[in-house]
Write a structure and sequence with these properties.
The chain is an alpha/beta fold. 42% of the residues lie in helices and 17% in strands.
Length: 342
């Protein structure tokens, strides 16, 4: 344990000596993370230029930003990424082009997330980009009865067995790992807890916005969240400093699902767990459900991550707890409910 702490201290010291990139590129630039990062970098004097890749221009693009229309599902995407990265002299690439929620068009999702990551990394390799930061999620660990109370970065990613939505992201992480080994580049993977806040929209905000939130009879697992502000701050930190490795980015504290539902101002809808997965699967196939049947596991078993490594090596400490992120989301959601009732 002592040797591990000393190694982390040496790594943290090395980070303080790392230089900052002058030109940053982002895939998924019109996403929540992409738009907010571009807005920050537009005001940051340490960043000279920003290159934004997406199918549509980000609303926050300003004088510093060059928008490049790009569809990562197309076979020519890798060559296009390489060309632009080379021409702009990009130092760091943030790969954020992942779906904010599961899709019923699983073939498209695979092309975007797994194959699209391959194209993005191929472009970075051909342009000799020094640093890549990849967005991932703590839910990829999977919800299992054998999980420890807090999952560290060394825990295997087992959620890919439950749903293609997870499998594509697990494959993207594996591609990033092979890229780091083969190219010797600085590769940072940020596994974020589910994002909540007043403005972000994703599968979790939709789940907790329901009047009745499904739960399982006899089960009350612990959940954790990450405030949207902290998510943006973590990516900004990883792009401006060299932080090689994989890091859990989570809010402090956890909450039982029953408390999450109550604080969100919702009512639980308890279901017998033997029926939950078949019912969820049928509704998903009929495209009447937002979440695939694999999400039932998270209503039953714990899947919360340890953020100690990010604090020690990256210097990332969240400004909001899990409870505060939930309350910030719930406060705005109540206002929306009132408007809809008028």
């Amino acid at each position: 344990m002592r040797d591990e702490r000393e190694q982390r201290a040496r790594q943290a010291g090395a980070l303080r000596q790392a230089g900052r990139p002058r030109t940053i590129a982002l895939t998924g630039a019109a996403s929540f993370l992409g738009q907010n990062l571009i807005g920050l970098f537009e005001e940051d004097g340490r960043v000279e230029r920003v290159v934004a890749f997406d199918v549509k221009a980000p609303a926050t693009a300003g004088k510093k930003t060059r928008f490049c229309e790009l569809d990562l599902t197309r076979p020519t995407a890798g060559a296009r990424v390489a060309e632009v990265l080379r021409d702009e002299g990009v130092d760091a690439l943030a790969h954020l082009a992942f779906l904010a929620e599961p899709s019923h068009t699983e073939a498209y999702a695979h092309e975007l997330e797994a194959v699209g990551t391959m194209y993005a990394l191929d472009g970075a390799r051909r342009a000799d980009v020094r640093k890549v930061v990849l967005w991932s999620q703590t839910l990829l660990y999977g919800a299992r009865p054998s999980n420890p109370n807090f999952l560290t970065e060394e825990h295997p990613l087992r959620a890919g067995e439950a749903a293609p939505y997870f499998a594509d992201k697990v494959e993207a992480e594996a591609l990033a790992g092979r890229y780091a080994e083969a190219e010797g580049a600085v590769v940072t993977v940020l596994r974020t807890a589910p994002l909540l806040g007043p403005t972000v929209r994703n599968y979790m905000t939709r789940f907790l916005a329901r009047r009745f939130v499904p739960t399982l009879l006899g089960f009350d697992p612990l959940w954790q969240f990450l405030h949207e502000v902290d998510a943006v701050a973590a990516f900004r930190l990883a792009l401006l400093r060299d932080c090689p490795g994989t890091f859990n980015i989570v809010g402090e504290g956890v909450l039982p699902l029953s408390t999450v539902v109550r604080l969100a101002g919702r009512a639980p809808l308890p279901l017998p767990h033997p029926l939950a997965r078949p019912l969820s699967g049928a509704l998903w196939l009929a495209q009447l459900a937002d979440l695939p049947p694999g999400f039932v596991d998270y209503l039953r078993y714990v899947c919360v991550a340890d953020g100690a490594k990010a604090a020690e090596i990256m210097g990332f400490r969240p400004a909001f707890t899990t409870r505060e992120a939930l309350l910030d989301f719930a406060g705005v959601q109540r206002l929306r409910d009132v408007r809809l009732a008028l």
